[in-house]
Please model this.
Amino acid sequence: MRYSRNTIRLIALLICVSLAALSWTQEGRTPLVSAVDAVSMTVSDADRAADFYSRVLHFQKISDKEVAGEDYEHLEGVFGLRIRMVRMQLGDEQIVLTEFLAPKGRPIPADARSNDRSFQHIAIIVSDMDKAYAWLRQNKVEHASSGPQRLPDWNHNAAGIRAFYFKDPDGHPLEILQFPPDKGLPKWHRASAELFLGIDHTAIVVDDTGASLKFYRDLLGMQIVGQSENYGTEQEHLNNVFGAHLRITSLRAAAGLGIELLEYLAPRNGRPFPDDEHANDLVHRQTVLLTSNADRLAHDLLSARVDLVSSGVVANQNDQLGFRSALIVRDPDGHAVEIEEK
Model:
């Protein structure tokens, strides 16, 4: 029996994740994280943001609610808050648009760059890059790249990928991406009449890949599913960073989005994550992970001296938060990670 390239890739990915899970089991451990559930981003106006993501990028609104009170104050580390949360879905994946009705935070700095360690984007898969780019131009989105880039054939692990960076109304960076036939998850190659298909991963800038792997792989149990080193004029124009040379490491849990680590080998002048960043600042995004045991996970995180945003594990006392218990921590570079037990 002969298999298609997409089937072979899926089998290889499942073998990789299964072998990694077996390794954890043999060591008497179970991966602490079972899925990457969503990416939450702080927005200044939930109505404007929801209109952009639905009208321009074809997301669908699936919930819209307000939360307030001590549970969420202790979770987010912001006193006196009232939050409106709009959950949006594209394909199988979801984002959460979070507007702080009180207290308001700060805008994204006008001089933010793609190699700053506060950088995080979601990668939206498209079925046709040329049509998608024309649609974004028609809707007058703000460019972050000079235009769509095709990564060169000499780069075996990234060859043929087409990508473009742009911004939403609050300045959050976004990416549209089209995989060639020999790359990407099989589902991105299914026949579809849709232009925007779903979210493949969220990408974060890191200072040291090794330190990030100790957190996401060794502590949380996510697995490496891809690696590449990208440089050259196409990468420079994609990131809008002169001389960009990146080490890229792709991670996945058993389900959900991937997390992509972007380490700039050059230039090394990206700014560190702001020490005074809070959840109500528009630069704030938090990647939502799922676990079966938040208390055990919190114990392991504290033992590893991981920085907490929350006051500890927050139990959902009034069922308004959509989970049993949760906590928010920071990864080695300062990116917020919310871990929920549902």
The longest helix spans residues 5-26. The chain is about 25% helix and 35% strand. The two ends are 42 Å apart (CA to CA). Residues 1-26 have pLDDT under 50 and may be disordered.
